[in-house]
Specification:
The complex is a heterotrimer of chains A (267), B (350) and C (356). Chain A has 267 residues and is α/β, with parallel strands linked by helices. Helix content of chain A is 21%, strand content 34%. In chain A, β7 (105-111), α3 and β8 (134-141) form a beta-alpha-beta unit. Chain C starts with 6 loop residues before the first helix and ends in a 31-residue tail after the last strand. The chains are: A alpha/beta (267), B alpha/beta (350), C alpha+beta (356). The structure holds iron/sulfur cluster (5 copies) and FE2/S2 (inorganic) cluster (FES). The site of one iron/sulfur cluster has 10 residues of chain B, from α8.
Chain lengths: 267, 350, 356
């Protein structure tokens, strides 16, 4: 096996599997890979296929992947359990510019499983309170079944530095709000942040588009907004072309983009 | 050094070359065309000079030799996997100027983009030497001069075939020995200086113009005309897109392969993620994506040249008679219109 | 008007009786419906000189010129000598001095010697059509010398592909151009276009196997149309070089029992098609006890019974390995009159030699 093959996957052991919701499970996999918050890896099952999955958490010798069972490969991954093997390659792409966020007020707005690519960064802020001044988290989900990371959401709610708004699009839930995440943007106390803040948005394309416009409407300058894109990927190394938008390759130049760029990426 | 060979000497030359090289050239596959009793010309290994089609453009591009439509990346057994093997013998690839220039584009993507070198491209490409074939000016779909691909630089041999044999120039010394004892001649290759077809690519450097172009009604024409078949991109000298596909063998599901299979942005599903809606869901959207890639995006990223080399194969192979040059001209008109309206203080996008 | 004309003799000469007493319509053969366009001026000349100035496209692709007066027929026959010799003798290699294979001298000035074997019709085929699998008029020109001149009736329709635009299903002996399709998995991009085309335009025999990344086919029901070939962007389906044919027999229109024909041979080679037709005269002669009647081929098959037809028509024919033959044929007729064939024994038709 040549060691200069960037497509070569490495077999890794599954350490445990945690069910976040019916269709979203978190797989903890043994790996020493050095991953930036917001980067992704290619997970594969030989004879079934490969999928790009963002790293949702990391620790000493392990990585977490929160996976939604929506296709052939993820369905087969859901048949795996602790002790089984997953094949990994990566990490790939550009993650969150955490250094840029350090010491600032951080606003995180997520829709659905868009929480996964920010989860490790939010945990970093929770575990090391000095990372950011404070963190405003707005997380929206379609309905109760769609909620992911319930335990962590509960934990973050109690955190001193955190101010959280959790919402379901249409349904009611105790202690939760009802409405699209865009409706809560106007409640963010941007005037108290001065110039010293950054906003992170992740979710489905429509949600990101309207959240971006809503932020601009509330006086947030383009340069303070960051987004993470999810696109079809096959190679993750800039060869297959599936993820390309104009001259931009999401796998190489993203998935995290400054809004100054993201705003003008039209598929 | 130039040579002039009669048919027997040409055959002898190929015999000598074949000892050290696998020779690939455009070859006729009788009656294998889309329509009954039409031929197809595509690249294949050849043994004798009469197999080489030098007076007609191949239907499918030379890139197939280096990045084939399908190729195995890994073989899987029950719990192991291994990389596919590379071929040992080097390749001599007889190709037209556009085909050879197209390799510059392939190289940018496969060997450079993102700093990753694709092993499967690299290991073949490293073994390929090019012989540029005189194309006699091509046909009425060619616009290589407009795209600056008419004079390739990276070739070892230059060949001009005609009924009387072959004229050749050796520009890479490692080929000198094969011509031992062959009659010399002052032949130097000439490249086409003008095509019947000329294409002017509109200036798309302005972001507002580009955004307006994306939503311009011109693309709607293709919702009706284009059938999203992908023939244009499969035939394209410069398209590189592929999908990775794992398969298991029908007779033994425990063993299988990870394969690379050509993909096309013109075919439905190219941008579709599992469980999500397709992003470019109309033929017009897909056409716009292809045209902008060929005539703006690639150059915007890599700087040196447009992706399209003007080989005209997409036009030639389109079953719906959609001409790429006509499409670029329509785009140029749309851009003029957009620029005029922007200058007029017309509506900016967003 | 007082005429003494043998209209049957005129019919055999390819002049059809008009409702206007004393007038006839000439029917000129154009095998496969294709001739040099230069003959259009001859047609015009005949029509303007001897006809009524009009021209009709015959339903069997003959050039039909109505309004020819009986007394002009000799002049017309003399004029069409060139057309007959150029089209039939030269283009189709017909031996005009034989009828049904038996020597019988042809007077070049006498017009057409027989009407029995009708003009062979054809769609334009792959000479032009993007669907066609074969050159239809070239096959027609090869068949012409086998069936013509002859007093035995046969209508042959050739269609270039199983879309059957030329209604091979509605004649005695229909020929449909097909090919076996070859799949080259190494060129397949698994786009599914062939699967969709076969589903929408043909027999839904293809499917994309996601596990193997290959297209699979249920070969039993492929009609050999080539829709998959036309759809493929990568040349992963190709037609076999060898042309193959479906033979559809026994179709007809008519006042008694119209019906669509049924498949007799599938995947027959050109040699098989021609050799089968070489047995046609023999079969017709046997059924009618060697006395030609005005009776079309489908009816002859009915009289002999399919099994007997099969026996005679395949006699000495060496089938190509792919060729399949109908073991039996299950006709499905429109019975304008119910139980039309239940009748006194004495009214039953006979088949085969009847003795003295
Ligand atoms: S887009 Fe068309 S003309 Fe340009 S390189 Fe591709 S096939 Fe050739
Ligand atoms: S035109 Fe389409 S298929 Fe060709 S390289 Fe560009 S994105 Fe890929
Ligand atoms: S442009 Fe032509 S070849 Fe390309 S996808 Fe459309 S119909 Fe097919
Ligand atoms: S030839 Fe056969 S497989 Fe192909 S479209 Fe026709 S019926 Fe389907
Ligand atoms: S149309 Fe061609 S490339 Fe597409 S699935 Fe069928 S055989 Fe494969
Ligand atoms: S995923 Fe293949 S180019 Fe980005």
């Amino acid at each position: 096996m040549s060691n200069n093959n960037p497509l070569q996957p490495i077999p890794c052991e599954i350490l445990n599997v945690k069910k976040e919701s019916t269709h979203e499970w978190t797989f903890r996999v043994a790996s020493d890979a050095d991953v930036d918050h917001g980067q992704f890896m290619q997970l594969s099952i030989p004879k079934v296929g490969e999928v790009p999955i963002s790293v949702s958490g990391q620790g000493d010798g392990w990585l977490d992947f929160t996976i939604r069972s929506v296709g052939k490969v993820t369905n087969v991954i859901f048949e795996k359990e602790a002790g089984d093997t997953l094949f990994l390659r990566g990490p790939y792409g550009h993650g969150w510019p955490v250094d840029e966020f350090k010491g600032k007020h951080l606003v995180v707005i997520t829709g659905g499983t868009g929480l996964a690519p920010v989860r490790s960064m939010v945990n970093l802020c929770a575990d090391n309170p000095k990372t950011v001044k404070d963190l405003t988290l707005i997380s929206g989900f379609k309905n109760e079944d769609g909620i992911v990371f319930q335990n962590e959401l509960d934990k973050w709610k109690e955190h001193d530095h955190f101010s959280t708004t959790y919402a379901l699009d249409n349904d009611e839930k105790e202690g939760w709000s009802t409405g699209l995440v865009t409706t809560f943007v106007k409640d963010i106390p941007f005037d108290t942040f001065g110039d010293d803040y950054a906003v992170v948005v992740v979710g489905p394309p429509i949600m990101m588009k309207f959240t971006g416009l809503e932020l601009l409407k509330n006086g947030v300058p383009e340069e303070k907004i960051w987004m993470s894109f999810e696109r079809k990927m096959s190679c993750a190394i800039g060869k297959c072309g599936h993820c390309r938008i104009d001259e931009t390759y999401v796998c190489l130049d993203g998935p995290v983009f400054p809004y100054t760029k993201a705003r003008y990426l039209v598929d | 050094m130039g040579y002039s060979l009669n048919p027997d000497q040409t055959a002898e030359l190929l015999n000598r070359l074949a000892e050290d090289y696998r020779i690939y050239a455009p070859k006729r596959f009788p009656k294998q065309g889309r329509y009954s009793d039409t031929d197809i010309i595509r690249y294949d290994r050849i043994q004798t000079p009469d197999e080489i089609v030098w007076d007609q453009k191949s239907d499918y591009p030379a890139k197939e030799v280096i990045s084939p439509i399908q190729q195995a990346l890994f073989y899987f057994t029950e719990d192991e996997y291994r990389e596919s093997k590379k071929a040992k013998k080097p390749v001599l690839l007889l190709a037209r100027p556009c085909d050879i220039t197209a390799q510059l584009v392939q190289e940018k993507i496969y060997a450079e983009n993102g700093g990753f070198k694709d092993l499967y491209y690299d290991r073949v490409h490293n073994k390929v030497k090019f012989a540029v074939m005189d194309c006699g000016g091509g046909d009425d779909t060619c616009f290589c001069v407009s795209m600056g691909s008419n004079k390739p630089e990276n070739y070892s041999l230059a060949f001009k075939f005609d009924e009387n044999g072959l004229k050749a120039e050796v520009s890479d010394d490692c080929f000198a020995d094969y011509f031992d004892g062959m009659p010399e001649d002052d032949f130097t290759p000439e490249f086409v200086e003008e095509n019947e077809l000329k294409v002017t690519i509109p200036d798309l450097s302005d972001r507002d113009v580009r955004l307006a172009l994306k939503s311009h009604p011109m693309w709607k024409e293709f919702d009706k005309r284009c059938i999203s078949c992908g023939s244009c991109t499969v035939a394209c000298s410069t398209c590189t897109c592929f999908t990775t596909r794992d398969i298991c063998y029908g007779d033994n599901p425990e063993v299988g392969e990870r394969r690379r299979v050509t993909a096309s942005c013109q075919v439905a599903g190219f941008d579709q993620m599992a469980g999500q809606r397709e992003i470019r869901s109309t033929a017009g959207d897909r056409m716009r994506y292809k045209i902008l890639h060929k005539f703006h995006d690639h150059k915007a990223r890599f700087g040196d040249r447009h992706m399209c080399v003007g080989c005209g194969r997409c036009t030639h192979m389109c079953p719906e008679f959609i001409s790429i040059s006509a499409t670029v001209n329509k785009m140029a008109d749309a851009v003029d219109e957009i620029k005029a309206s922007l200058a007029d203080g017309g509506n900016h996008v967003e | 008007m007082n005429h003494d004309i043998d209209v049957k003799k005129m019919r055999i000469n390819c002049f059809r009786q008009s409702k206007v007493p004393g007038e006839f319509m000439l029917q000129m053969r154009a095998p496969g419906g294709m001739v040099d366009a230069k003959y259009l001026s001859s047609i015009e000349h005949i029509s303007k000189t001897w006809g009524d100035g009009n021209f009709h496209f015959g339903t069997r692709q003959t050039f039909d010129i109505p309004g020819i007066k009986y007394e002009n027929i000799d002049a017309v026959n003399e004029y069409i000598e060139n057309y007959i010799t150029e089209v039939d003798e030269e283009l189709c290699d017909v031996d005009m001095d034989k009828v049904a294979g038996e020597p019988q001298e042809w007077d070049v000035k006498s017009g057409y010697p027989t009407i029995g074997a009708r003009n062979i019709t054809a769609c334009v085929g792959n000479y032009h059509c993007i669907c066609g699998n074969m050159n239809t008029y070239e096959l027609a020109r090869k068949i012409e010398p086998i069936i013509f001149p002859s007093h035995y009736h046969i209508k042959i329709n050739i269609s270039g592909c199983p879309n059957d635009c030329n209604k091979a299903h509605m004649c005695d002996f229909g020929i449909i151009g097909t090919a076996k399709m070859e799949y080259h998995p190494e060129r397949c991009i698994a786009c599914g276009a062939c699967v969709r085309n076969c589903e929408h335009g043909a027999t839904r025999v293809l499917s994309l196997n996601e596990d193997t990344g290959r297209v699979e086919k249920d070969p039993c029901c492929c009609v050999g149309c080539g829709e998959c070939v036309r759809a493929c962007p990568a040349g992963a389906w190709t037609r076999s070089e060898k042309k193959l044919y479906k033979i559809i027999i026994g179709g007809r229109t008519g006042r008694q029992t119209p019906r669509a024909g049924k498949m007799f041979l599938n995947w027959a080679s050109e040699d098989v098609v021609l050799n089968v037709l070489r047995n046609w005269q023999k079969f017709s002669a046997w059924v009618m006890d060697y006395k030609p009647e005005y009776l079309h081929g489908g009816h002859l098959i009915d009289r002999a019974g399919y099994k007997k037809f099969k026996e005679i028509i395949l006699d000495g024919v060496e089938l190509n390995p792919e060729c399949l033959v109908a073991e039996d044929i299950f006709w499905h007729e429109t019975e304008y009159r119910s139980n039309f064939n239940v009748k006194p024994l004495s009214m039953h038709h006979t088949a085969g030699p009847q003795g003295e």
